Each structure stands twice: as structure tokens, then as C-alpha cells.
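Q: How would the C-alpha cells look for this protein?
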Amino acid sequence: MDRIAQLTTRPAGREIAYDPAAAPPSLQVRAAQVLEGNWTGQSTVPSRGLYPHQWSWDSAFIAIGLRHLSPLRAQTELETLLAAQWADGRIPHIVFNPSVPLDAYFPSPDFWRSSAAGRRAGAPRTVQTSGIVQPPVHALAAWLVHLADPGLSRARGFLARAYPRLAAWHAYLLHRRDLGGGGLVSVVHPWEQGMDNSPCWDRPLSRVAPAPARSFRRADLDHGAPEDRPTDLDYGRYVRLAADYRDRGYADGPGDFAVEDPAFNALLAASEYALARIAHELGARDPAREARAERLTAALVERLWDPAAGMFLCRDVRAGELIPERGVSGLVPLLLPSLPSDLAATLVRTVCGPHFGLGGTTRLVPSYDLLGDAFDPHRYWRGPAWFNTNWLLERGLRLHGERGRADALRKGMLHTAGASGFAEYVDPYTAQACGVTGFGWSAALTLDLLHDRPARGRNGLTATKGGDRE
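A: Here is the predicted structure in C-alpha cell form.
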């Protein structure tokens, strides 16, 4: 019996029944119960109601937490996602569950029409997916999952099977998505970056004519308060961009929206380091991977660093200029070991300064500038704090020697996770739950923080600038 079964069932296989008068279940048990409840048999949904399918970067973060409970299930999580990869290398941002009704989520499979519209790009015929992508956290997740039980991983050939798919995924991004010609990947839809309605997208999105409101139905409003979700105007623009991309056969090229995003590219660099580790584990040293990660870091500094802002900014590729909005995406490059030390120190000051308030006015790092005109503490990515970005920043702070701040952030995340019921996102000032509760990556990353204790160091990519501690 694996750890997730031990934590969520009695020896006879019955679910744990808690006596209200007894001590409350531990945070670990509660997190494990969320993941068990969201498990479909092959993958984990972010939320049973609002997000009833498999999401790409969600599954990567979920696997990172699942590895502490069931390394086999964590491997299966990633393998299910990779099985839906397109022939051109892209990993789609949604893999649809055919048993879920079409009206349970929009855009649904009949909108994306992947097997037909994506035929030239090599969309799979046996499963329906979306046609856009999400941030490339997958190689980092695969490496961390392997480390959780190397014996099982080797016996199953987990890395040997995952490596060529992950390499093809990175090749797709590096060769098909360098739309700005400067060595960085561009996203062609806000959903690809994962921070859907960030104010960083407002300027390039203003060029997009929204789809008519009568042409789609927003299923998300059935599960979340309208004031917590993107506006109808923004959603109409998302639908228009996705439909136009679909109608071009999911061919990459110049369009109305193309943005070089700091977090997306930093995560690609981090996963290039992880792919180098995976290649070494498989007996094939690949120094080109680490060199590529360092080139990506250098390109980030050259193209997206803004000294006046004290952080990285997004670049509007079509307009050829930086977007003057401070989003949490611009802090995520702190995750990179080859980031120049002066820039890392500046990022730390920015995280703790008035724009993000960590250690002062905020409990967790908000998704957007506290002083920005568009700041809203409850509306999706326009201000609330998210567990995945804070998990990345906790690792980045620890990597660059900020142990005290990393410890405080870790403590704040664990407290907030329990108090909010593993919320999708929270008010950065009060930690009030927003969106849905019982959210997959909030529970999974809580487990990772509980198990990967600071005193032990990090056993993954960003343990120290010199490599792994374990």
C-alpha cells in the first residue's frame, strides 16, 4: 500500500472517519485527501467542478507533491500527459477526459477540434486536447519524481521513456516559438503563460477584437464568483485568439498576440538543467543542455531585465517593447542558478519592497504589483497570491542564500494552505480563500514543503549553485 492509500484509508480499505471531538487531521492527511479526491485513475484534475480535465503545468506541480506519497502515481501523472503529445513536440495545455460532458467546461473539445484542426501539426487521434501549451515545468518535475524512488524509476524505465518526449517538447519551443528572434520563447495566448488575466497582457490584448458574447458560454462562472474571475471582455479576447490559432491549423507565426514572458522562459531554462541531469542518469552526458540553459538565462537578462523596475518585464514582440507592468512572472527567474548575483539581490529587494511586500504587508507574494493601477486582491491573476509561484520563489530565495526569507515564506504557505482549505488562490493581505478550494497543486505543493524540509536542503535542481546537496 502506497503512502497516499495509507493516509486516506483504514487498513481494511475504508475511508478515514474523523471524530469531530478528536484532534483534527494533519495538514499532510488533508492534502493527501485532496489529491485522492481529484485522482481519475490516470491523472489528477485541478478541481472536480471547475477544472474537470488534465492540465499541463498543473500535472507537473501535482506530480512534484505526489512523489512523496506514491512515486508510481507521480510517474503515471506525467506519463498520461506525455502520451497526449503532438507529433511536432508540443504538450497541449489540456488533455480532455471523454467521460466529462461537453458543457462542463469551456472551451471544450468541440471548440479546439484538435484531431481535425491540428492534423498537420500532428495532433493525436486517440485523445482530444487543446492546441495551445503551458509553461514547461515537466522535465524538472520528472527529475524530482525520479529522485523520490530511483529504484522504481529505473525498473519501470520512467526516465528512458520520458526523455525523448521532453527533448522534443523543448525543441518545439526553442525552434518554433522564437518569434522575436532573440533566443526566447514567445507565448501566443495568455492561457499559455498560465497567468491568464494578468495586467501584463492588457496592452497586447487591446489589439484583439473580442469574440461576440453570444458565441460562447462561460462555465467557470458556475463555480466561482464573477468578481474573482476574468471579465467578459477579457474572456471574449481569449476566445478570439484561440479560435484564430485553431483556424490557422495551430501553425506558429506572427499573430495579434506574441509575448516573451520571464517565467515561461525561466522554467524552460530550469527544465533544460533538469534534462541535463536526466541525460546523465541515462548514461548520456549532454553538456549542451546546461549551455542552452545558460544562454536562455543570458537572453532573459538581455531582453527582459529592466533596471528601473528592479525586475524582469514581459516583452510585446509585435510592438517591440517591454510592457511596463510588474507581475510575479518577472520574479520567477530567481529560480535560476546562473542568474548574476547582483540581479538576484535586486530581485530579492523587489520581492520584499513596496511592490510585492513579502515579509511586510503581504503573507504571500501577490501575482501583481500592489501599487499598480490594475491591482485587485481577489481577481484571478491581477493581485491574489498563488501557491505555485510562491513555491518557485521559495526555492529561488533558498538557492540564492536567502534562507531566513525562504523559511518565512515556507511557513506562511503551509499556514495559508491549511487555513484556506487548499484554495486555488488567496488574498495576499489576509490569505482569504478565493476561487475554488481543494485545489490540486495547492495540496501537492503543500506536501512538497512538508517533506522537503529546509534543514535537509534541496534534492533537486536548485539545491545550491554548485549542484545537489543529496
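The first strand starts at residue 54 and ends at 55.

The two ends are 27 Å apart (CA to CA).

Upvote if useful.
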